[in-house]
Amino acid sequence: MVAIHRHGDARACGATTIVSGQSTVYSNGNLVSIHGNLNSHGGGALVAGSKNVFIKGIAVVNHTPDSAAADSAGHPPSSTQTAEGSPNVNVGDP
Question: Rounded to 5 degrees, what angle do the CA atoms 31, 36, 38 make?
């Protein structure tokens, strides 16, 4: 099992994730990130790695790390991926 990625968790480029599109599911007091969430640099939409865990029909983001698109600060997709996840809440994907 892998850690779940949340609002405020780090990205490899130094940005943090901004959760939008869901406001009801939390892990360790932070909203759980879902597919398409952007980063604090602008852009950098996350590509959810979960195949079995969804919030409102949208896949949650694992920290495996999960990949992301380029962001507005010019960081390529290889550096906008997740860099952090919950220390004790894991996604139930195999």
Answer: 70
Q: Write out the residue range of the structural domain in which residue 21 sits.
A: 1-94
**In 10 A of CB 3, how many CB atoms?**
20
Count: domains in the chain: 1
pTM: 0.94
Q: Would you list the DSSP string of 54-69? A: EETTEEBPBTTTPPB-
pLDDT tens by residue, 36-59: 999 999 999 999 989 889 999 999
Q: What is the CATH number of the domain that holds 14?
A: 2.60.200.60
Cα distance between residue 94 and residue 91, in whole Å:
9
